[in-house]
Amino acid sequence: MGKGCWHGDGFGKERIMEQDFYAMMSRMKYIERWALMRNSMKENISEHSLQVSMLAHALAVIGNRRHGKTLDVQKVALIGLYHDATEIITGDMPTPIKYYNANIQGAFKDIENQAARQLLLMLPEEMRPDYEAIFFPAKSEEYLCRLVKAADKLSALIKCIEEEKTGNTDFRSAKESIVDALHKMELVEAEDFMRDFLPAYGKTLDELRMEI
Q1: How far apart are CA 153 and CA 175, in angstroms?
Q2: pTM across the whole model
Q3: pLDDT surpassing 60 at residue 70
Q4: Does 47 have pLDDT greater than 50?
Q5: With contact defined as beta carbons under 8 Å apart, do 4 and 16 qualify?
Q6: Residues 185-195 as b or e (16 or more Cβ within 10 Å = b)
C-alpha cells in the first residue's frame, strides 16, 4: 500500500494517498462545463483543458515570433493543461455565480487554492515542487497566466461559435460578452489570434479540406 496522510481542511478530514494524483486527473472527463446552458454538444474539462493548453501555447508563440517576446511556451502550455484541475474537487462553478461579486470571487479563489493543495498531496513528496510550480506559478510568470486566461476565454468563444453553427442561439449573448472581455484584456497575442485564426472555426470540414 502506498504512503498516505490524514488531511483536514474545508473539504473534511480524509486520508490522501500519495499515488492517487494521476488517477484523480483522469476524472476530469467526468466534469461537464456550461451547466446552465442548453448544449448541442457536451464539453468536459478534460477536453477544454487540452484546448486551452494548445491555445495558450499558440498565444505564446505569437508573442515570441511576432512581437519579440521571450515567453516560455512549454510552461504556459502546462499551466493551461492543469488550469481547471481543481474542478475535480470543486466542480465547475457557473461564471455568473463565480464572478457575481468580489466577495464570492475571493472566497472561491481560496477554495480553489485549498483544492490545489489537496491535489498536490496526492503526489509523492519529491515530485510536488514540479507540480506546485504549475498550480501556483511564480509572480514573474504573471504574463503567462494572463495568456492562459485569454486562452480560456478563446476556448469559450470557440464553443459559442460551434454551438451557433448547430443553430443553437443560447450562446449568442455569451459570445458577445466573451469577445468584449477579450478585447478588454488588451493582449496583442489574443487580438492576433482572433483576427487571423478564429474565422476558420466557422468553416465546415469540406471548406477546411479545400485549403490543404
Answers
A1: 10
A2: 0.85
A3: yes
A4: yes
A5: yes
A6: eebebbebbbe
Q: 169 exposed, middle or buried (CB, 10 Å; 0-12, 13-18, 19+)?
A: exposed
Candidates 160, 157, 179, 158; CA nearest to 169 is 160
At residue 1 the predicted structure's pLDDT band, cuts being 50, 70 and 90, is very low
SS3 of residue 199 by DSSP: helix
How far is it, in rounded angstroms, from Cα 162 to Cα 204?
10
- Greatest mean pLDDT among 9-23, 102-116, 119-133 lies in 119-133
How many CA within 13 A on the CB side of residue 56? 29
- Cell triple for residue 5? 496522510
Q: DSSP label at 4?
A: E
Cell of residue 150, nine digits: 485569454
